[in-house]
Amino acid sequence: MRYLLVEDNQELSEAVVNRLALDGHAVDHAANLAEAEDYLATAQYDLILLDVMLPDGDGREFLARSRTRLETPVIVLTAQSQVSDRVGALDRGADDYITKPFDFSELEARCRAVLRRRGGSARNEIVLGDAIFDPLAGTLSHDGACTELRNREIRLLEVFARSPGQILSKSQLMDRLFSYDTQVTENAIEVYVGRLRRRIDGMGVRIETVRGVGYRMEAGAP
Prior knowledge:
Layout: E1 2-6, H1 10-22, E2 26-30, H2 33-42, E3 47-51, E4 53-54, E5 57-58, H3 59-66, E6 74-78, H4 83-91, E7 96-99, H5 104-118, E8 126-128, E9 131-134, E10 139-142, E11 145-148, H6 151-161, H7 170-177, H8 186-200, E12 205-210, E13 214-219
Parallel strand pairs: 1-2, 1-3, 3-6, 6-7
Antiparallel strand pairs: 4-5, 8-9, 9-10, 10-11, 12-13
Helix pairs in contact: 6-8
């Protein structure tokens, strides 16, 4: 999944980016609201982590102004612990908040919870054909066997699983899997899709190539 982190504290930003990258997420970092606007104008994000106090404005006000055009879920990062501050962030359109300093495991759990709610699910597991996919554990369970996936395979399968029947182009998949700092070509997507196809073979779900357009995940055998 691809995240946008809007945070001016460089040390904290590096720590968050590195931690989320360990789980296979692609993270772009904006140090202020102007940079955030530039990123949002050119890429699609699954989740935004938004600081409150930024050099060029208040993140909550930015969120309130953006909600008419921005549907991406947002978790507000705040050092303010008053109930009124947290309520204000939620009323302005935040999906959740976390108070600094925070534990990275809590941040990761809140990210997962927000994405589950946006996907209409209360559980981590996703049913794919005859298999059960657990993005948190990084496993595919089928016919009594459990297969462990690599990080990039997990995130690619998660993108397909949360967009059933939707055609996704190679460029869209690149946007969802890689940050701007990562130099990749569309050939990398072909490689990862090929690996994923081998993983799900015989599980009652397939990744179909839509010639000249992209890929689509559907239930059923080829």
